[in-house]
Amino acid sequence: METSSDNNLKSKRIVFVTVGTTSFDSLVRSVDTEQVKEELSKKGYTHLVIQMGRGSYIPKKSSGEDGSLVVDYFTFSSSIADYLTSASLVISHAGSGSIFETLRLRKPLIVVVNEDLMDNHQSELAEELAERKHLFCAHPQTLYQVIQSLELESIIPYHPGDATPVAKLINRHLGFPVD
């Protein structure tokens, strides 16, 4: 028989979803589907925390008492660093700040491209990093399929480049001493 203390010993596996400071209702709506939540649960995730930004779509909260995913949401936080740190998987909009902060923490990342943006330069970054196997790239309508076929072992850790050669070149060009 399982006791409540046994339940507390089970490790939390948190999926953190962030849309940044704007609105990305199609991402929030997509992650809030029963299909996506069931797939996340099948993969062993226990909690879904959604940062929904300025969006108008309100996801369904769940306490997880019926064995399903615990679901919670909020609009904004002064810092999402703690959420990123505690996450086992991050699902994010395609903003470069969110992408690189997550990669720096070496968290598995699914970037969902917002097709509603006019000049969608963010998709180029997400697609390039996905091609290099640093993250997975999805669209709101393909998120379920990406989660279903998720192979975290295929991720190659991202190593930020060394800016020293560029700084030396700039210093030399400006006439500053180069060490």
State the main characteristics.
179 residues; alpha/beta; Rossmann fold; six-stranded parallel sheet; 6 strands; hexosyltransferase activity
Write a structural description:
One of its GO terms (cellular component) is UDP-N-acetylglucosamine transferase complex. This is Glycosyl transferase family 28 C-terminal domain-containing protein. One of its GO terms (biological process) is dolichol-linked oligosaccharide biosynthetic process. GO terms for molecular function: hexosyltransferase activity. The protein is 36% helix and 16% strand. It has 179 residues and is an alpha/beta fold. It has one domain (10-174): Rossmann fold, CATH 3.40.50.2000. Strands 3-2-1-4-5-6 form a 6-stranded parallel β-sheet, sandwiched between helices. It is elongated and about 65 Å long. Mean pLDDT is 90; it is low at 1-9.
Short description:
With 179 residues, the protein is α/β, with parallel strands linked by helices. The protein contains 8 helices and 6 strands.
Find the structural class using helix and strand composition: alpha/beta
Q: Could you name the ranges where pLDDT drops below 50 across 5 or more consecutive residues? A: 1-9
Strand order of the largest sheet: 3-2-1-4-5-6
Q: If classified by CATH, what would the architecture be?
A: 3-Layer(aba) Sandwich
> Which strand-content bin applies to the residues?
15-25%
| Oligomeric organization of the protein chains | single chain
Distance between the termini: 67 Å
Helix content: 25-40%
Rg for CA atoms: 19 Å
| Largest sheet properties | 6 strands, parallel
How many DSSP E strands? 6
Quick one: overall form? elongated
The CATH class assignment is: Alpha Beta
Mean pLDDT: 90
CATH topology: Rossmann fold
Order of helices and strands: HEHHEEHEHEHEHH
So how many helices? 8
GO biological process, one term: dolichol-linked oligosaccharide biosynthetic process
Domain Glycosyl transferase family 28 C-terminal: 14-158
Organism: Lactuca saligna (Willowleaf lettuce)
Protein name: Glycosyl transferase family 28 C-terminal domain-containing protein
